[in-house]
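Researcher: Here's a chain I'd like modeled. Treat it as a single chain, no partners, no ligands.
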Amino acid sequence: GALAQRLRSARGSPRSLHCFTGVYRRLIPDREGFHASLVARSLGLPIHLSVADDYRMMERWGELPLPPEPGDHVLDAFFYDVDRMVAEKARAVLTGHGGDVLLASSTGYFLDQLRHGRPDRALAYLVSGFYRIGKRPPLGLWSAWRRRRRRRRWRQGFPPWLTPDFVRHQRLEERWRWYWLERAPNPRHPTHADAHAALVDVDYSTFFEHQDAGARRRPFELRHPFFDLRLIEHVLAMPPAPWCLDKYVLREATRDLLPEAIRTRPKSPLAGNPHHRWTRSPSEAWTVQLREVPEIAAYVQPQAVLDTLRHDEAEGRIGRQHQIGRRPLNLAYWMRQMRYTTFRV
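Model: Modeled as a single isolated chain. Structure tokens:
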């Protein structure tokens, strides 16, 4: 956004730029609105903040356009309203998707250098990290332990609510094993293994399909500068240290573009999990949703879905597995809406 504003001013373009940011004001401690507004003010751009606190899971499901395929459509109402606001101002939107993936240092780089008999590169990696970012760069020990642990416990997390016939017919356990154990590209990229593995992952195919203007049914195009192939090739050719430590290259590139408070700001994930609030006590809605679509019994066991979700909720486990557990609800919603949808050719 900052670079686009500089280019627009240099070329005297009459096109206007706007900033859009989603924020929380009560659900979790969140300062994203403050930081985004600081950037917008420094660039002289108007900013539009969309507050997500008051939206509920499955809100207005029956009123929103039917997605082209079932997915994880928990907060469609929020994103639909954001898209509608954006469409009033723009026909092209720049996003920040991909920055964390592309510019993250590979957690296994240090161990890889030692494993392949290159202690000089491992030492240079450590020294560069201390010298440039003032702290020890990641060694990858914790990540390596987690990968080994995942390989030993890959079967945990397989949805218990799928019907046995569906699992057997679609070879789902075999595909689950491939997803968690075998999908990483081999051999690993010599210097940016994590970034390369993420960029070629099948998940991004789905991501881009869902971001398409036709899928979103909005008259604007989403553009992702961090996925520009020229930029990807350039970053993957750079030494990981110091350039991809703590996003050092991005901080240096924006030295004259962003306020110092933003440029030097530490990496700050969300201070809480808003999904915990959104998914509290929806059991009645879940029950109705599943019972209204008896056809779903060919794929999942409705009572097992409800039991799993309620157990996760009672234990306070609102993470990835809980997100997977909600997908039968989205499938049921999509199947129900398909009954009443007329397609014209």
